[in-house]
C-alpha cells in the first residue's frame, strides 16, 4: 500500500516560521536562524521601503533574506475586510510587483494584515497570484492546511517554547502521519513581549533533528502540490510524477521517492 505521508528529503515532520511587517530586528533573528538551520518566511509591506526613515532599505532585502522567503503583507498593511476587490488587487498585486523587484523571484505568499479577512477576499487574492495566506488563528495543533489561503498557524511566538516541547515529544511517539509546527510573530516583539533568549531556546529545541524538514512557507506549498499531483496505479504498484520536483512517499512501510517526470514501479 502506498501512502503520501512522507515529506521532502524523506523527512517525516516539518518546522516553519513566519514574521510580519519587516523590522530591523529581522537582522539578528535571521542570524540566529542561520546558526540553527531554521527557515523563516518574512511578510513585508513594500510601501515601507520607499520611506527614508525605514530601518531596512529595499536594496538590502535580497541579501538580508537570502535562504529564507520574502512574501507579501500588503503595500500599506491595510486590513482586507475594509477593502473592495479593486482595492485588494492594488494592495496585493502592487505589493507583489514591488517585492519581486527586490527579491528577484516570484513572490506568491501572503499573511493577512492585522489577521483580518473574509471568505469574499479569497478569490481576489487567488486572482493576484497568491497561492497561500497565513492567518493569526492559532490552532495549537500540528496539521497541514487543507485550504492554503486560510493557513492557520500552530502558535504565536509567545508560546513557541512550550509548543516546541510538546511538538518534540509528539514526533518521538508513534508515527501517525506528518506533523507541522508553525510559529508566527513579529521580530519587534522580542524587545517588548518575548525575550530573545526564548526564541534561541526554541531554535535549540527543534534544530538538528533528522526527522524534521526545515522549510519556508512556499517550500511547503510547492511540495504539497507536487505530492498531491502524483498519479498512482489502481493496484498501487506504480507511481507517476508529473511535477518538476522529486516526491517521497511510503510503500509498505518503506520510504521511497520518484523523480520529476518519471515512473516508479514496485
Describe this structure as you would to a colleague.
The chain starts with a strand and ends with a strand. With 266 residues, the protein is α/β, with parallel strands linked by helices. Helices cover 28% and strands 21% of the residues. The mean pLDDT is 94. The longest helix is centred in the middle third of the chain and has 19 residues, at 85-103. The protein contains seven helices and 14 strands. The strands form four sheets. Strands 2, 3, 4, 7, 8 and 9 form a six-stranded parallel β-sheet that branches. Strands 1-12-13 form a three-stranded antiparallel β-sheet.
Write the layout of secondary structure elements.
Blueprint: E1 2-3, E2 13-21, H1 26-36, E3 40-44, H2 61-64, E4 69-72, H3 85-103, E5 109-111, H4 122-127, E6 132-134, E7 155-156, H5 160-171, E8 180-185, H6 196-206, E9 212-214, H7 217-228, E10 231-232, E11 238-240, E12 247-251, E13 254-258, E14 263-265
Parallel strand pairs: 2-3, 2-8, 2-9, 3-4, 5-6, 7-8
Antiparallel strand pairs: 1-12, 10-11, 11-14, 12-13
Helix pairs in contact: 5-6
